[in-house]
Amino acid sequence: MLYSLISRHSTMALVAESQKSGNMLLFLLWHVVHLIISVLYIVREILRAIESYLITNGYVKTNTNLNLDRVKYLGIVVDSDEARNTSQVIELLEWLSAIGVKKVCLYDREGVLKKSKEVFMEKFGSAKIPNEKLVSGPLLSKKRMDFEFVSLSDGKELVAKAANLLFKKYYVDADSEKPFFTETHLTDALKTLGAVEPDPDLLLIYGPVRCHLGFPAWRLRYSEMVHMGPLKYKKYGLILKAIHRFTKVKQNYGS
Predict the structure, then answer these.
(1) DSSP of 207-248
(2) What's the domain of life for this entry (predicted)?
(3) Which among 39, 47, 94, 176 is most buried, taking Cβ atoms within 10 Å?
(4) How sure is the predictor about 242, in pLDDT bands with cuts at 50, 70 and 90?
(5) Structure pTM?
């Protein structure tokens, strides 16, 4: 009996020691993987900085002659937390103005950029809020830009209104034909509500994740999306690269 208790106690001690060693090994492995990822991220940022420097200073000639006729409407998506840094957004817009971009759609989920619209209007020219008339501000030489400000709430509100409009048109009357709703029905409903702004040709996304952060999906049908990384790590040369690559892409539109 005593031998059995001693044996059981020894077995439990070995199991506990084995689990402790396993946990330590997993903990060490996690730190190694985290270190490797951090090093790779640092190397990536260094390479991006070098590439941006070469493009900005004209060492890479392919990105200097931009066909801005292909980018009539540029979309900028910014993570709401980063959008609160107004100076970073202004610097980004100054770069776009210097490049020659004339019309920009600024989007963040929480509408932070919309709340700061007066700052952008004063510095760059004019702005447009969804469902409002174009408002002109003071003009600065060679810096006039047209803005549209969009947030997640704008998209939700418009979709709800469009759905209500379609419901009243096709479902209030029990005898009316009940169609299978397509993109055309939604587009027509949105136009009836005054949502006639075009799809951005190119969408530059600044944020920690690779997604459009809730930008209205019906306005991304023909848009090219490029993730640019966090706003604080933005690079002038990489904006030139993104625009240049977009202008060289052949787009085929279906019927």
Answers:
(1) SSSSS-TT--GGG-SS-EEEEEE-GGG--HHHHHHHHHHHHT
(2) Eukaryota
(3) 94
(4) very high
(5) 0.72
